[in-house]
Specification:
alpha+beta; five-stranded mixed β-sheet; 12 strands
Amino acid sequence: MNTIPGPRGWPLLGSLPDLARDLPKFWTDLASRHGTVTTFRSGTETCHLVSDPALVGDFFQHDIQSYYKGKHTQHLASVLGEGLALLNGPPWKQRRQLLQSAFDRPAVARWLDIVIAACASYVPVWDEAAAHGRPVEMMADMFRLTQTIIVRILFGRSVQHEVTTSILGAVDTLNSNMLRHLLREMVLGGWLNRWPLPSTRRFHAALATLHATIDELIARQGEGEQDKDALITFLSNARDEQTGTRLAAAQIRNELINLFLAGQETTAVALAWIIHHLTTQPDWMERIAAEADRVLGGQAPQIGDLSRLVITHRVINESLRLTPPIYGIGRRTSIDVELGSWRIPAESVVIVSPYVLHRHPAYWEAPTCFDPDRFSLGHHMSPRPRYTYFPFGGGPRRCPGRHLAMMEMLTIIAQLARRYRLHDVSGSRVVPKSGITLRPYPEVLVRLSRR
């Protein structure tokens, strides 16, 4: 086996300065300069970036057998608890089987009315902004919109306002402090997160509020009439197929927090990117609007209408290609692994990056250009390898909420497009900024005008 190529980096720091400066660009340059499997150091940690679609497929195929979510991912456990996103081995498999039926394509259709109602609740706000020519910061609005949706999906359509306010207030505090909290967990054994700094106290107070509020909702299950479509009801009634046992209250709470934080962050970021791209591509905005008028006929969408929003689907796919919210997927090897002609030792970090493969010039024509037609059936390019496009991951750990996310995006973008024209605010240059997700920076400032 040959030595895996890669940059030497700095003593002790490795490539940390480049990673901190622009992580997606560093990975892209790494793949361009050093090939399909390359190595770099993040501090004292040796990492491997894989950018060959066939090897990415091998990575996903053996995800459970040869890889696991290691110590860096486990830093999230202090927030998420031991939920599906962090479990490994047999516990992960049991939990995935338990949850999967709640998120298949037919099942998520029962939540379409929640998405439509939440979107409609923002119409007066957007109408007023349009009437006064006032710019709207769509990143913030998409976060609030997706939070409204996920609260009702998790806890029921009739969840009380004060409960919603308590949950959203806590989640806002957690979101604004999450990256700082995780970085501190990686330094000095997380000691800074146990020191009574103001930001630390706010973080732990918000987490305690979130736990207490959800625990109370779980304790009330069985009292009065329950929303049978709510995930809290599903989780409270779910039984393991083999043992017949139910989840404990703490396990239900952990899953609800996992689903909340994952479900609102990635979908909100994806929606903000779609809106940004449409403000710079007015022709595509008009095509989506015309399609929405033709398919929906001025009515709220039915679940069967969404599959007919073909142009809208292409635009969403292209936005997820160019600016995927989940831009890197990392695992730690549980055994020695061979990827192509390279041997990677056990306990090594392996990373695959949708951002890198989605923009790879070997597989995409004009990869940095926004061109939804590349996802049309009649596109002239020859078929691409499978894992040149994987915004929702792949293999057995592929995102279970992908059908829900796509339903939300199709519904919200179609509703926006048929009511408003979206105009880029002069001087607002938006670039990707890496954090927990790949967010648009500094903001998505849009001027709306009624059609």
